[in-house]
Give the backbone structure.
Amino acid sequence: MTSIPSGKQLLNMEDILVKQVGLTSGMKVADLGSGNGFNTLAAAKIVGGKGQVYAVDVLKTALATVDTEARHHNLTNIKTVWSNIEILGATKIPENSLDVELIVHTLFQVNNIDDFMQEALRLLKPSGTIAIIDWQKKQTQIGPPLENRVSEEDVKQKLANISGLKEVGGFMPGQYHYGLLYKKLEG
């Protein structure tokens, strides 16, 4: 669980991943923009030894932290992938292979959401799920600067224009965040 300075829980990712995203044992998952791997580790525990979780980030130092944490927690189902997700074809994960993609606290750092989402869509299998959790576009005690945040409405508008992707729901993962779920259409 992530904590905020007052000690209150920020996000209970394991709970969110099971109850909202539908993660189950044996799934193949990518944490796109994994950072230090907090969400990667949560997903790896849920999908278990028959599943696979890819931690994808452009920062090699972040991926080194993920490797260290995976070893510390005895999680052998995590693979780190160094990639710029905004470049189509750059991410070394088989096309159409992922059941779920996690995009958590990432969009505020992305320069080109259209290119980022096209790469995400390339990796996702038909009927696969993209789960987006990001900061609400309102001033809060924690999180990125307000001007860097991407509102829920802006994400919905951008993704509505991406062929092969359909919004299937939304949820409130915490008081500072919004959550959106998308499915890759068949064919």
